[in-house]
Design a protein that fits this description.
2 copies of one chain form a homodimer.
Chain A (H helix, E strand, L loop, with lengths): L3 H11 L5 E3 L14 E2 L9 E2 L3 E4 L9 E9 L13 E5 L11 E4 L3 E4 L4 E4 L9 E2 L10 E3 L7 H9 L6 E3 L3 E7 L3 E2 L10 E2 L1 H12 L3 E8 L3 H11 L4 E5 L4 H13 L3 E4 L4 E2 L5 E4 L5 E5 L3 H19 L10 E5 L10 E12 L9 E7 L16 E5 L11 E6 L4
Parallel strand pairs in A: 5-6, 13-16, 13-17, 14-15, 17-21, 19-23, 22-24
Antiparallel strand pairs in A: 1-12, 2-11, 3-10, 4-6, 4-7, 5-9, 8-9, 18-20, 20-21, 22-26, 23-24, 23-25, 25-26
Chain lengths: ~400, ~400
Amino acid sequence: MIDIEEAYDILFDNVRPGPVVEVELRDALHHTLAEPIRCDVDYPPFDRSTMDGYAVRSTDVRDSPVLLTLVGQIPAGTTWSGSLGEGEAVQINTGAPLPDGADAVVRVEDTQLVEDGARVRIETAVAPGRFITRRGTYIAEGQTVIEPGTRLTATAMAAAATAGESRPRVFERPTVAILGTGDELIAINKRPQGAQIRNSNQYLLEALITSADATPKLLGVARDDRDALREKITGALQADAVCITGGISMGAFDFVPEVLEMCGATMRFRKLTIKPGRPTLFATGPDGTPVFALPGNPGGAFVAFELIVRPALAIMEGRPAAAPKTITAALCGTLAPTSARRTYIPARVTEETRDHRVEAGATQRTVTPLSWHGSGDSIGMTSATALVVRPPNAAQVADGEDVAIHVLEAS
Amino acid sequence: MIDIEEAYDILFDNVRPGPVVEVELRDALHHTLAEPIRCDVDYPPFDRSTMDGYAVRSTDVRDSPVLLTLVGQIPAGTTWSGSLGEGEAVQINTGAPLPDGADAVVRVEDTQLVEDGARVRIETAVAPGRFITRRGTYIAEGQTVIEPGTRLTATAMAAAATAGESRPRVFERPTVAILGTGDELIAINKRPQGAQIRNSNQYLLEALITSADATPKLLGVARDDRDALREKITGALQADAVCITGGISMGAFDFVPEVLEMCGATMRFRKLTIKPGRPTLFATGPDGTPVFALPGNPGGAFVAFELIVRPALAIMEGRPAAAPKTITAALCGTLAPTSARRTYIPARVTEETRDHRVEAGATQRTVTPLSWHGSGDSIGMTSATALVVRPPNAAQVADGEDVAIHVLEAS
């Protein structure tokens, strides 16, 4: 029985990033970058107009109003091959490259076409560089756009595309085998008889693994029999990681460490001083494959996944080793004193107006523990967006006091 | 030119939920529920032991220590068909059904087996109901487990599975066509020449649409030609919704409203008093298909997606019509006064220790505007997790003051 800090030390020592692969950029979404993405051009690649108007030489318009001769037109997407001489202007659109010779743009609303469009009357002076984004303002050729270890989100995809990175090198998504155990588990479309329990953990874990950017692989349920379990675990060890959930049968669960050792696995930890989630086991297979045996009760499986499995999968995906972050929120309700185990309570984070503050509309993060009946209750934790974290032997907490929470990643 | 509140009125009047379909539970992840999920059994389905120990009649152990006769054994997953008589006990495991006649459980650590296991010595008295979760404690048969309009997350999957809902009725995910416009757009693996620009918006929108639980459909780029655009838009209107991004060419962009009208679409709004994102157009096709024409610059496309397209897709997916929520955060840095347009600034939300507060470790949400060069800059917005929202004609904001933000959904 070890505490959660020690568990992280063991976990981070025994889980390694997966292989690096090169993929099409669009297939790299939500993968973690293995090598920096550098921009292969200055961006923007030319001095660019930020307005519709006229490209001018700023010295020509210093004493506006002045009349300039219109010598060309540059819609976005086109270039103008000439060079702007003294007393000349070129009509330019937003996004178009500034022509040679020009050093500023006058907005169309500050101008007037005259002489059937042969000349343009410039009403205002402009400083050099006005309404221009200089080449390389956003990024210069060769600079790093995205650092390795970054998870590629939508805005990162846009940056990578701009940088010309069509085949980034990323960490492969791990495949995670899901294996239930216990003769009492039945399919969810069956009505439980006697002591039977629907296999809700399979659905919980499949969704959690998906939300952790990994690929779930359903291996069904191993019956309470050493040989059956051994066969299933041998198959599961072909995946990149394994999540086993016990039934709620103590007898059945006890087979797992024994059979894992028969399969050549090394036990790393077997029990944690947390509630729920105490019987959480971490082992590594003969090739180092991480194996997690989670409690059979849904609350324990959920909490153990969030605390242990999700950080492990993040490492396999190439992200930094890190425990879930703790932040604080104002408690909505009260909390009783806790036992000697670190306690996690499914809760919902909301934003409330801070009526004690002067600023109109200022909001404050609050957290409301869910009406949850404990580790066996798969219904009461449905809308959880956070876990309230209570230290061992904590005192009671009054309404409005700060409590520590882990905000859960969207799942 | 309308403001954002008016835009939401128009949007919410013109976007409707999509069709309802029945799917396998595991395929329902991240869909929105169309009909309530009710539990088809009491849960737990029986009075359940929460401990390993002995099922007893509490009246028998009132004057502990006492000796009881051991008459059976109930591992989890099994039932015991007998009925517990006076002076009898049954060995029971966590999760197992309480036998008839028993009304409490004594923990194994408070007992001792004697006479070769024929009898058990009970050391402590227990109250009726001790260490038992009563049948139906979590939910009673027929009660609603998940309300319609709920997005099905991992914990909701567990609850639905427990309730026996193997084929929920959910709203179909919309397919969203993505169409770029502009002769200057090139594939990202080409090096831009002259006025060319890589088509980064396609990658941005594909990822944003995916993150909004919809299915992107890439239609490529329409060249700056009315006939080409008409053909592409006619094809796009076969999807459930359409996102068009202009090039940065004003000329090309101006074709879009005209061609949309040629295709039988009705204009709903054409410009918004927001920055970036002013040239955001919303129309509905002949069959009511929502069409969004977003600015060609990446900042404008990103902000317009988050403000307009994401809430519209949420409605199509069966969720409530709602503008992005505004909360507050302490500004890290300073902000200049704003123009007459409502201004959005890509930013990063972090948690900082509140050193002015007494509680050890209390944290506060802070927001740091990114080093972003404006709407054309697709690099500087890469790590945005929020948009700072500045009202029209807002004063400057000093470091540490509260500002309004939209926290962005994970993308």
